[in-house]
Amino acid sequence: MALFVLTVLSLCLPAWSAVKVVQPYKVVSSNGTALVHCFLHPQPFHHQSPLPNNDLSYPFPEPEDLRVTLLRGLHGSTKICSSILNLTGPIETGEEGEVQCSAQRREGALELTVSGLRATDTDLYRCDIEIFYPPPYLRFTGNGTLIHILGSSDFIMYLQASQCDRGRREIIRPVHTVDAAVFSCYNLA
């Protein structure tokens, strides 16, 4: 009996550990909407290009019905929002609180658009992908993306710092806040 259990586990573990969700390191948003790409690796979608160097292929049937959930925190314990995606039909958007998610498949990734974010929502977020159909039920969690939501003053500083990186020095006038201020590139450390 023990030999049978070990044989079954040895056949299942490589398939479970072969698929992972890869996310970008950082996403910056100035308007409260962030775009997070969640890549299943290896890609299950039949539009993928041939695999070089005999890389692993996706070991399960191509997903049709799935849910993408955005989890907040280092260990991804707080559910922020989710979106159910039917790859053969229309997109359904789930709402939770003030933050809303909408998912779609684009260029080999699941693209999650998160709206309603504020500067205080800056944190590490993980994609949790659940595949409902076809069987078997699968669940994969990503490595995490730092979503940095810039407030109005943070956004001005971000623009000015990026100008310094490009060697430009211009005065930036905010539309709704204080008047323009001269910014020195030498103040950046």
From TrEMBL:
Keyword Membrane: yes
GO BP terms: regulation of T cell proliferation; T cell receptor signaling pathway
Principal cellular location given in the protein's record: membrane
Compartment(s): Membrane
UniProt signal peptide: 1-18
Alphabetized UniProt keyword annotations: Disulfide bond, Glycoprotein, Immunoglobulin domain, Membrane, Signal, Transmembrane, Transmembrane helix
GO CC annotations on file: external side of plasma membrane
Keyword presence, Nucleotide-binding: no
Topology with respect to the bilayer: Single-pass type I membrane protein
InterPro entries, A to Z: CTLA4/CD28 (IPR040216), Ig-like_dom_sf (IPR036179), Ig-like_fold (IPR013783)
Taxonomy, superkingdom: Eukaryota
Name by which UniProt lists this protein: Cytotoxic T-lymphocyte protein 4
Species this chain originates from: Pogonophryne albipinna
